Amino acid sequence: MKAEFLPGNALELLETGRDFFPALIAAIDAAQREFHLETYIFEDDASGRAVAAALCRAAQRGVAVRVLADGFGAAHFSATLRPQLEAAGVKVLIYRPEIARFRLRRHRLRRLHRKLAVADGRCAFVGGINIVDDIDAARPAPPRFDYAVRIEGPLLAPIHASVRRLWTLVAWAGLRRRLRLPAASPVTAEPRGSTRAAFVIRDNLRHRRDIEEAYLEAIDRARGEILIANAYFLPGGRFRQALLGAAARGVRVTVLLQGRVEYALQHYATQSLYDILLRAGIRIFEYHSSFLHAKVAVIDCCWATVGSSNIDPFSLLLAREANVFVDDKEFAAGLRASLEAAMREGARELRCEDWRRKPWLQRLASRLAYGLVRLMIGIAGFGGKH
Prior knowledge:
Elements (H helix, E strand, L loop, with lengths): L5 E10 H15 L3 E6 L6 H15 L3 E7 L11 H6 L3 E5 L19 E5 L3 E5 L19 E6 L3 H18 L21 E8 L7 H12 L3 E6 L6 H12 L3 E7 L5 H8 L2 H6 L3 E5 L7 E5 L3 E5 L5 H6 L2 E7 L1 H18 E4 L1 H5 L3 H20 L7
Parallel strand pairs: 2-3, 3-4, 9-10, 10-11
Antiparallel strand pairs: 1-7, 1-8, 2-5, 5-6, 6-7, 8-14, 9-12, 11-15, 12-13, 13-14
Helix pairs in contact: 1-2, 5-6, 7-12
């Protein structure tokens, strides 16, 4: 389904939890009727407890507060913060509760990975930041590098509808009759700014490839520059060919990737693509200052995206995701400047000769990791050059 761009929005780019959590808590504290929160991780740490306290305050003053957390990413949530929330009157649902944690089953790879919040149908947050401290305990500064967007305007309507739809689906699936939703509250969808933006989701039904198609359409139109920052970058055949084709027609293609090992399998699988990308003239920067968690892109200084979707098979083919796609020069310029600062101050460029000097065992490990990831996707029921 083609992304539907709506005019008249006001968007604020939020960088890392230092921007995001104060803005989110302020929106919770200002909520008067309802507050929806969807998250992959909801951790019992300083940030998680601050958000939980704000949600409890809202519920206690009569706001209908609903939290939907993933059963795998927020595996400890039910034993930590959930009792406190429910005691205060917050309604909680778990997406695909994790029962056999160490048993590989197809459904385990299909997670709720999107990070959304909606306050009173008045403002919304879309991005990649979980409810978890973004400070690396081993290296206290800088914080985990990620983004979210605060939104007001017509885009509120599809975002609000999406969180209600998924809540209803999970409530029905769990036979939780008492948690089913009342009639929809009014949505403040009149113009609040001048930005054209689209809200695009990924699910396993009508929107299986919407995020990927939005990316591919923008890459195919690119004439000057493509700048992508992505935490887990393992594009399928179509996506790889689109980037290689852009580089071949003279577009400057740059990718900012994870430099520190967070998940070894994904890290080394990504490195299996370095040789073909570098030989095509695509520049690769590895971010080392902290963990890179961003899932953003800027194309031709006028198109941008911020969201939860990585460019890997798990996000593009399996998980529930949500991105905002923006057609606005000012927003794109702000995101581009932020990414350039990150590359300048916290990343190192990897060149062809650098990669070829890597030990052969490391390059072999990368190929083996890539093969294992493809096998896991095959087990999940997907194949081909998606």
